[in-house]
Amino acid sequence: MGSGSSKPEQHVFNADAPVRFSQSVVNGLQSSPETDSTRAKDTELKIQQRVNSELKRIRDSQSKELSKLTASLTTNPPKEGDKPAPDQRDPNTLAAHLSSPFYQDYKSPTGPPADKKPESDRTHDSVQKEIMDLRQKLDSRKKVDKVSPEVEKAKENLVMCLRTNDRRPLDCWQEVENFKAEVGKLEKAFIQKAGR
Known about the structure:
Blueprint: H1 23-31, H2 36-72, H3 94-98, H4 124-140, H5 149-164, H6 173-195
Helix pairs in contact: 5-6
């Protein structure tokens, strides 16, 4: 256990013969204008040029892809020959879902109404009108009932207790039980009402 040293050992190698360089190598090194810093800068410039050329190549390919996709998206419906085969379409897309024979609008079991305009005829005003109609439908839906005052009071008591006993929240067990009881009453009333 203590017999080995914990410090790393150093090895020094001594050459048996003196190391000699030829005069041409020495002259070449002395006459070279390059230094370590200039070589590092040159390497850095080459790397930057390579990265820039790769980025430009990727950017060009992406812009070609984007222009191809933009050209393929039209406001006119595609011709029969342009439609992809059903097995080539991605089944996870919205278009595949809507064109599915199993999809039906929940309001109209027979599909979209006949008075709907095709998408190519849509204008800003028609889309705005459609949005307003949807908002009115959403606003006309049944609102959530107000919480009873007993539940609201139990909730306020619980919150107040937890704030005053922020270091000892288990001291609020009575308020928690009161809140649970009031919520339980609401649940029972909802189940009775829904069961009718």
